[in-house]
């Protein structure tokens, strides 16, 4: 019999199970239609060789402490310098994860007199950082540029005296659609606002040289971009690119940076190599673009579903349990697809999130959609 201390957690788990929201860990198996390894770099020989070379020249696996103690390794500093140059920013700061970077950014930079206006579908990590910060925050409808402008204007008319912050993803992780970056950059300039762009799913695959969808605006003092390193770059961590003053302020004030053990110097060496791949192997992005175009067309042809125009292809199911059941059946057929359910996505929009990577080819994509069409038809019968 469970003790009273554990019983409340057991009740919560039982409730999640009843709602079709229970989560379990599932091993990798079958063809990859769920990872964010968009350019197929995670298992690439170039990254393996770079890591091996770094070990040979004495780069340690662990940092041994926070960056402000003994954990600051030359690999971190060289990576940050190379990343800033690559992404066209004054400085870059390397964090252990995109989640950690977003929490540090939003809990530290917006001040009490400021306002954060954020897209309703922004990453959970941004929500966490905003909630931990001092500034007032307001959510606006997804990808509605005018709503951002209206919210800032209303705040000013009500006596708001601080600095507005506009927070968006450039490519949304569950819908695969793009933010109206040019419009938001214009609004930010007009209202003397900071524009924070999470490039997590665009870094490496969109923009010139894979620099992201906000690349044309990265040099602005009011623009902060987040480039995660565990998706298309195939390694781990995240690079926050911004002005030198913003980066120095985070080093001095961001508790998540100050009190965390530094990311592995070995991973920093891997990210450096990934950036070299972006600059030196444009054919990877060409192949990726062609594969995504094929997959979007195959989705519409096989399922009659709208294409996203990106590598993230949501197939809406609606019911939580049905989404899980369909994903399980697809894995049984050798296609690794996962169900995404609330609260990750809005209530009633449970879906299959199909991700296209260079780990599959056209024949495999076609076979996957053919099988999915059959499974969906059987589920409706």
Structure description:
The strands form three sheets. A seven-stranded mixed sheet has the order 2-8-7-6-5-3-4, with helices on both faces. Helix content is 44%, strand content 15%. Helix 3 runs parallel beside helix 10, helix 4 runs parallel beside helix 5 and helix 12 crosses helix 13. The model has no long low-confidence stretch (mean pLDDT 95). Strand 5, helix 7 and strand 6 form a beta-alpha-beta unit. It has 13 helices and twelve strands. It is globular, with a radius of gyration of 22 Å. It is α/β, with parallel strands linked by helices. The protein starts with a helix and ends with a helix. It folds into two domains: 114 residues, Aspartate Aminotransferase, domain 1 (Alpha-Beta Complex), CATH 3.90.1150; 220 residues, Aspartate Aminotransferase, domain 2.
In a nutshell, what does this entry contain?
By secondary structure, this protein is α/β, with parallel strands linked by helices. It is 44% helix and 15% strand.
Order of helices and strands: HEHHEHEHEHEHEEEHHHHEHEEEH
* Amino- and carboxy-terminal Cα gap: 43 Å
Tally of alpha and pi helices: 13
CATH architecture of the largest domain: 3-Layer(aba) Sandwich
Structural shape: globular
Low-confidence segments, ≥5 residues, pLDDT <50? none
Describe the structure using short key phrases.
single chain; 381 residues; alpha/beta; Aspartate Aminotransferase, domain 1; Aspartate Aminotransferase, domain 2; three-stranded antiparallel beta sheet; 44% helix; 15% strand; globular
